[in-house]
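Per-residue structure
===
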Amino acid sequence: MQTFGPYLDGWYDVEVQLQMHLYNRYDQALAEGNAHKDQIETIAQFEQWREHVRNTFLAGIGGLPQADCPLEPDYRGELRAEGFTIRKLLYQSLPGWYVTANLYVPDEAASPAAAVLFLNGHTPEAKAYSSYQNVSQHLARNGLFVLNIDPLGQGERYQYFDPNTGQALIPASTHEHCYEGVQCWWLGQSLTRYFLHDAMRGIDLLQSLPEVDPERIGVTGCSGGGTQTTMMMLGDPRIAAAVPATFIMHRRNYMWTGQAQDAEQIYPGTSAAGIDHDDYLAVMAPKPVLVGAVAYDYFPLEGAEYSLERARRIYELFDAGDNCQHLQGKSADELTWRESKLFTPEELWATETGQLLGDDPATTTVWQLNRRERQQQLSERHSVEQLRDWLSAQVNDGRQPVEFHPRVYGAIYEADLYCQKYWWWSERDIINVGLYLHLHPAGDAPESRPLTIALFAGGTSDAPRRESWIRQRCQAGQQVLVLDVRGWGALMPRKLGARDRDWYYGTNFKLLCEAVFLGDSLCAMRVFDLLRAVEFARQELTPTQVNLYADPGSAAIYATLAALLDESVGLELPGGIPDVDSFVENRFYRYQDGVHGVLPGLLARCTTGDLEKALADQLI
């Protein structure tokens, strides 16, 4: 049984096609966004763009969680240090959802005092991390109140902490964020909304303090904290100043690093709308913003310089091109710096055990919040017709189908089994491939037989080990087309970065993230390819009937959704209709299928049972 060799046996370099397809879409979208921004000449024009940026950002993350609950700050003790006191506390961000924090209270401060919300980067220790303690202490010694909060998945807020073993069942910080983030995408939302909401409640807490001036609250953070700082710049107009450190970049620069990002760093649909990091800065105009950047970081220094220069033009509209205000009204030279005495994580704990779930295993988690969100979303039931209309838009809008212009070659006989290699164009810059197999001669022409399009878990490379299955189908009077859609089988993208393709931060997650920025997904693109393969088969192979076969997992998700859009195809799934409910309803799901199979927003509109009912007449 033959398979495809490198470069489709020398025909085409398909290893880069999915990557370049996404990158080219980025270039076009960001160029269109820049062209529009270059025409902004008045503050009134910019205000329209600022509203567009903020509305697009908030819509992309699924809006903010709807909850009006008291903060109920619970102070759990104090630590004395030279020049300040640390109050250990937790506050309620959503009902039953708590944030652990340290409030740094300066010994000497103006009345009322300015304050800073400090947002931590990707370290398991979060607020207890040495560098973040240093910065918080430095700010407090210079008269600023500082609220240093643990992001979810870090510090005392591990969402997959097991109280029985004292261990995290999903590794903390970046791994946990990716795992939870994919689950949020299934609902058409983003993990960003929870990070942003927690930080906004932190501003609420600072504004509630009688010692703090509510009009002079700034925000800062480094790396992942820089990400959260930009969330606040985009989402909370109350902040008076911002210092995003080691995150501001230019999306195009970052794409070529080969690196993925945490799920909360992906702002769905914003790149498709022409929004880039210069907009994260410009939305603050004319308020002061200081960008921190370094040469040796994942986020390229050149990108930070590029975005800063573009944003500066907007600041100049406000006559604030070199805005250098400080919350304290002091220059950097007037600030005091002294060596810090660091505290241990245990000393900074606001909980007894060091974990909210350790103190109370019933504490609300992201998984539970997502389940509640889904229940609310499904309360407005969608008809099958509405689901199909929505699905069609996700799969087809913006695609560029072209003539198939198929190539066929490599015909061989293996006993009575005839195999040909095909490749054809699905979109303007996307090739799909298939192995076409049938018995010949068999007393009738192949086109007078039904055709099964098979999507194996390993694509066409699985064909040799599935030869018995293929031969049985052909002997039963069928034709078989073993299919590879983009990024699948022989069309697997080249490896990006050092991590495994299918694991956290690997190639497939990176490409998914790029697609989500564009308001797209790997799933939608592959369902499109599968439907194009059906069209290709009908046009070129002229079978009496087309049926879809798919192995369990993400392949079955593609086939299920394709059959929902093409009611004339039969659907054969040895594992049954995929249990898509499990990606939100279960605390643990298979991460690889979640990445490959996620169609953002699908689970806000249907259940596994809905799919089973809608496809009952097509199941074989």
